[in-house]
Design brief:
alpha+beta; 2 domains; 34% helix; five-stranded antiparallel β-sheet; 13 strands; globular; 9 helices; CBS domain Like
Amino acid sequence: MTDRIIRATGARTPMRLVLADITGCANEIGEKHGACGYSLKLLAETAISSLFLSSGLKFPGTVSVSVNFSGDISMIQADTTPQGLIRAMIPQADILATKNFEPALSPQTLRVVKLDAKGKRVRESIIDAVSESMGQNIATFLLQSEQTRSAVGIEAKINEKNPRQLDYAVGFMLEAYPDLETKDIEILEQVVLTLPPLEDFFDGSHYSLSGLMDMLAGPYEVEVVKEIIPEVFCPCSKVRTLATLSSFTTEDLEYLLEKNEDLEIICDFCRNRYIVTPDEIQNILNQRIE
């Protein structure tokens, strides 16, 4: 089963469809974090949310989606690019605390940050999270912050026998362009309202993303603009780790140096470990003197 993202538009109708199946990527992310059960489901559904928003970027960059909660999980974040690169994280302490139990959660805020290719913040929007359903949150965000009418469905299903695996992680976003006529909006609303459960498109081993697209198109013809294979990717590296340390104050670096111990830094997203030696910290200090 191959993950894919489908982007399509109405052939003669001003609307846009984005569909995503990231089951493999979500399971890979979950494995890196040791996530299972509901935390794995949250990682997948937030990643799909970010993919939907990054699909509409008009420039090379990244969309970061984060949700803050009160409860057993404090927050979750997913970053994606229009090319389908994905990374996501839940604080490791939250994952270890919840394990495979369903956490008590109360969504608080949804934050969307758009970054350009150099990582510079272009736009940031924060809204009240209306639900634990990421589909409802993204549809609300699009209406409130982008003035865009949409229907969004996102679902990740936990495997009943193995809570460390998802059977599928899929979603759709149907977006109405501003010039879509009222009668067409009403027809599409009925199509979405009568859409079978997303689970019905899963036969036990394969998810029919094309079947879901055909059903969502209703009486309208759609044209596939692009298909993308998503990938798990994190830009962290030893060089970036040292660059981050370079932003520390001289006092903080001298404190680390006094301990005369290797410093272990773990990326929150990919869980890669980087070891920084006392000599490398000293080198950062020496460069400031020069």
